[in-house]
Specification:
Number of strands of chain A: 7
Number of helices of chain A: 13
Radius of gyration of chain A: 22 Å
CATH topology of the largest domain in chain A: Rossmann fold
Oligomer: homodimer
Order of helices and strands of chain A: HHHEHEHEHEHEHEHEHHHH
Structural class of chain A: alpha/beta
CATH architecture of the largest domain in chain A: 3-Layer(aba) Sandwich
CATH superfamily of the largest domain in chain A: P-loop containing nucleotide triphosphate hydrolases
Strand order of the largest sheet of chain A: 3-2-4-1-5-6-7
Strand content of chain A: 5-15%
Largest sheet of chain A: 7 strands, parallel
Chain lengths: 337, 337
């Protein structure tokens, strides 16, 4: 552990000093959840907190990658540095997206103000959000002004990643099918800003109007869950703005950047602060949960525990009784399972 | 709790006796994770274990709901009873799917051998798999021969639900886009049987051939993770069969039912047993994790813990140090956070 701590600290220092290879190595460590990553995040965390973390999510085909490319261009024009964490099997980096996007991204290969990284969406549910949050911390500490978390918003874990951001953008395309419409409802709950992309298509205005109508009748969006009673001393969150962009031409992207800034500025009224507190709770629980999970799987290979689990598999013991026994042995390792 | 236990036992008895309203109420309790549900599952679990649990997953648009309807029809012809748990925003029950599917499902409104239930895909990641597994236990104990778990396979949680089944079917449609192809790779890892649906479309044979080629070069599918060293005394899992169906006409659906039976029969060689052991471990961990989570959120509202979390939110304390403190107070409640 001590060696890992030294290595983590070295990588952290180098990444903050602008060494892009060290940054890439550190993000690999974060992705693999190594002790090096933990040591680095422990060290970097106090220096992080200045970046604007923006989650970008939406159904496949809504144009997330193209919008991310357009946002990078717009942010660079405004003199800001941008890092992207793409937790998305269709990300340009992993090769799923259209060739045009990949070419667009390659334009930044020599620009030190842009850093793009894909993260595998494997691993157990919940772990994804923890890993992405750690990656965002590293990029934040490395000095990027804007950190974009891109996820394909069709599963609970992916939504959790996006919802862990300061500002969550949900992307829609005009007139997507019934099935996608249904997915939309769940996604809209986490949206701070809704973007109808492919604005040059005929249905764009109508889709935007429908979304505005939906957002008027449905309850105000719930932020990431927190037990801290944030509702008591903070104003209620505003209904999300609905914007139209055409990411492929850049139309509307400057307006989106401005909307992101407005949402962030609203943090001065406590909205983003509440999101940060909820994120801290989720982040700490993710670490606690992972440690307990490791402990549980350690227990599971002990003969006594294995026979308990086998009894459940063979329906001789119900899982709740087994859980009670294992919980006791987890909390107090002297208790035999 | 004692009253809940009595109510849970009553509902469990009634559900097993064939009372469909009691069964529906019990599944609502499972969905809401009440003490009644826990009491009922504790009681029903020893009587469960005879049903064949089949996970059916795939990208939106692959035709899952139509295939489920076709499988119901085929299973009923074979004299088997079928229950469906649809964890899918596009499920016919929640209204997302095509009208044709809903009409097809309504044909079973008066058939006691068919029971269809949708489950909301909300809630925290991981909880979804736990809830679905409990629902499957209830339906299994209620005597259904075949329990289908239908999920939209685009997120980690949804994949976990499907992977919790005895047999996991991954559905593909011919020539879906690049983006969907990429999602596919992750899904294929959990597949026991791969079905190319919409077999009447031109690309079906080619897609099936591509999938067979992919499955030959990629490593054998990983089953749901288990720490129990199942690989030691069980044969390696076989590569998944690739079948072609046209769910809308019923073509190939009898062959799919036969493939499901073959996969189940292979359980006698230990394959399905290994899956059941892994599922038991996952199921017990889900319950343990939920209890610890409740305890954590209980802790989080205590002033000492809240101030720890606030320090994390304000970047005065790193999340790992906070996690260490909270873990200690979780495991030993006398330790102040």
């Amino acid at each position: 552990m001590s060696e890992d701590r030294i290595r983590g600290a070295e990588l952290a220092e180098a990444a903050v000093a602008g060494d892009r290879r060290a940054l890439a190595k550190l993000l690999t460590a974060v992705e693999n959840r190594t002790a090096i990553a933990e040591a680095a995040v422990r060290r970097l965390y106090p220096g992080a907190g200045s970046a604007h973390l923006v989650g970008i999510t939406g159904a496949p085909g809504a144009g997330k990658s193209t919008l991310v490319a357009a946002l990078i261009a717009e942010a660079r024009l405004a003199g800001r540095t941008v890092a992207v964490v793409a937790v998305d099997p269709s990300s340009p980096i992993t090769g799923g997206a259209l060739l045009g996007d990949r070419v667009r991204m390659q334009a930044y290969a020599t620009d030190d103000g842009v850093f793009i990284r894909s993260m595998a969406s494997r691993g157990h549910a919940g772990g994804l959000a923890a890993t992405s949050t750690s990656a965002a911390t590293v990029l934040d500490a490395a000095g990027f002004d804007l950190v974009l978390l891109e996820t394909v918003g069709t599963g609970q874990s992916e939504v959790e990643v996006a919802a862990a951001a300061d500002t969550t953008v949900v992307l829609e395309a005009p007139d997507m099918g019934d099935e996608v419409q249904a997915i939309k409802a769940g996604l809209l709950e986490v949206a701070d800003i809704v973007v109808v992309n492919k604005g040059d298509r005929p249905g764009a205005q109508r889709t935007a109007a429908q979304l505005r109508a939906m957002l008027t009748v449905t309850p105000a969006p719930r932020r990431a869950a927190s037990s801290l009673g944030e509702g008591d001393d903070h104003p209620a969150p505003k209904r999300p703005e609905v914007l139209i962009t055409t990411a492929s031409t850049g139309d509307g992207v400057a307006a989106l950047l401005a909307a992101l800034d407005r949402h962030r500025a609203a943090g001065r009224d406590g909205l983003v602060d509440a999101a940060r507190l909820a994120r801290a709770e989720a982040q700490v629980w993710a670490i606690v949960s992972e440690r307990l999970r490791d402990r549980f799987h350690g227990e599971a290979s002990r003969p006594a525990t294995e026979s308990t689990l086998r009894a459940v598999a063979e329906h001789r013991l119900d899982p709740y009784t087994a859980a009670d026994r294992l919980l006791a042995s987890l909390v107090d390792p002297r208790t035999p399972a």
